[in-house]
Amino acid sequence: MTDSTRRARPLSSPSQAIASPRPRRWGWTTSAGLVALGVAVIVAPALARPEPPTRTDNTIVMLVRRELERKHISKHAVDDEMSARAFDAFLETLDPLKLYFYQSDIDAFAKDRDKLDDQFRQTKIDFPHEVFAVFLARVEERAATALKWVDAEHDFTVEETMVTDADTATYARTPEEADERWRKRVKFDLMIKLSEAEPELVENVVNPIDPLQNLGWKVGEHVEFPEDSGPKLNEAKDRLRKRYSSLAKRWEQTSSDELLELYVTAMTSSFDPHSSYMSPETLDNFNIQMRLELDGIGASLRSVDGYTEVAEIIAGGAADTEGSLKKGDTIIGVGQDTDGPIEDIVDMKLNDVVKLIRGKRGRVVRLQVKPVENPNQIVEYVITRDRIELKNQEARSAIIETGEKPDGRPYRIGVIDLPSFYMDMDGARAGIPDFKSATRDVRRLLDGFEAERQAGRPIDAVVVDLRFNGGGSLTEAVNLTGLFIDQGPVVQVKGTDGRVTPYSDELPGMKWDGPLVVLSNRFSASASEIFAGAIQDYGRGIVVGDESSHGKGTVQQLFDLGERLLGNSKLGALKLTIQQFYRPGGDSTQNRGVLADVKIPCLTDHLKGITEAEMDFALAFDRVRPLRHDFHGMAGSEIANHLQRQSDERVAASKEFSEDIRRIDKYETQKDRTEISLNLEEFLAERKQLDADKETEEISEELNDSDRPVFDIEDHYNKEAMAITVDYIRTLLASKLAVAR
Asked: Are residues 258 and 138 in the same domain?
């Protein structure tokens, strides 16, 4: 192996080139609204309501419109077509399930449906403020309706359904229709709360003599909610009262910057799914995510029915070092320094809570807390803020010993978990030599594998785990690929002028030239697809996982709007799609993704609405001319087919994969349904067979767990990935293609 400092062929503004999807459209989310105090969040001050538009807002709209028309890859004008798209997108952002607005509201708004483009040109932004004022009034009305139905009687044995599909749902035309819709919504939320509070219910449904016995209810009788029906029911009702009571309060805390961001992004996303406007606060948090560090206490928080709950303590952070704050604690107040007043944060938006708790290192923050062990007690914890490194979001490695070589020793597999292609853009622009870089971190991990070899413990293969890696810096994708290939093109980029430019690894030698496996799934996007596609085209390794990756083949660039107007740095940034990228072989990954060489059954391969092809206004797949590049012969259809057959045999004999396949089949029968049963017995029975929402929530929490292992070898999916890797090593050795290490 040889090591050298590698450079991608530079972009016109390399530190700002990004290749990542828009998370809100496809990423894992949780019903609790998990936010880490170190990931990108929108942070805004708590205000009663958005203030009227300002001259600065008008300037931002003017700059966004100008940059869209000049630099977006589509070359499309801001016209009536984009106006109609933006109109629909803005309303969908506020009310996706059509629970709040009346149809008459929508009809009144429709006068501006084809005029938003003209208003953008005139830098007028009255429309979102007018719509949002109506929205707040409707939220207050619906919250009152919901509270009424929490305390009403409900029959859980009746056969009725609730619409859950946004496309099928319609706006209520009368107060009576809205009231009925919210009756069903509250009934559904109560069923969710009861199923979470009483897991035995689900178990009893399998053989239902009396599936409601734990709450004293009988199947077939009218189920009422008397006050003495049990603590679990009362707790469920209390939590829902709190949720609906805080609903309007939290929406009223929407700042002017947030409303502007929602509205302007509705226009930019009408050009393609990945163009968006970032307010100054959002831009700050984006930079935190890319450099993987911030000043704070080191905790992940989530909002649960108006309360701020600790979801995770980041290992090695200030809160972890202090030792008092625990996972599950509820924070109800925040005070600054040693003597500042405690500010009540109950019902405060999570982003505003985050802003209060973050702060300069060395400064004290005081938290008023209800401990998870004793929620009736209120205590105060004093924590000194410090630099927090988001270690669980940077590249990490582990060495897995598995299988058996002919000499009886185990194979040793070096696994690298890479959550994103991160890069400290500010550090790169400032010329800091050791700015945070995914490539630099992966090179360091590969150095560790080389040290193992020199110590007589060689690594037989490297696995790069890109599952759930949504992308990041294009420069990092090119440079990191260069660690595994010799000189040559990594990606081709086509701009608005139609010219195609290659970006290459220009320095000779590889950091790792042995067997290479890339793990990928539907959530592996953009920069991940550049890496995986190049590895395939060069025949350097195999891609294992879901049938294909996400399918995002576009490049965005950040344009600081303030820099374009008198050096003002408080205008935020425009993330704009300016290029489309292609593999060395000429294929785009757009809409199609990178196809796996070996597929492993997984629910992620079947989830609805997460791929690029399912997004509104996504660009089409196309090709450009292939470039000359090396082919190492360490992959191909013959090798892939052989490995797939071996994997299929193991999967067919596995009880765990049989259960996975059963859940996949169940999901396939459910995913296109537009309604859900409000019969409690049927509801609980279905949730026992498959609760996709809960599974995605658990995956999200696992990914945010700072103590999670690099690679859980006890997981049957990971075991199969290791078995495929061992088969791959043996296949290459049999073909005399593997490098002896």
From this structure: yes
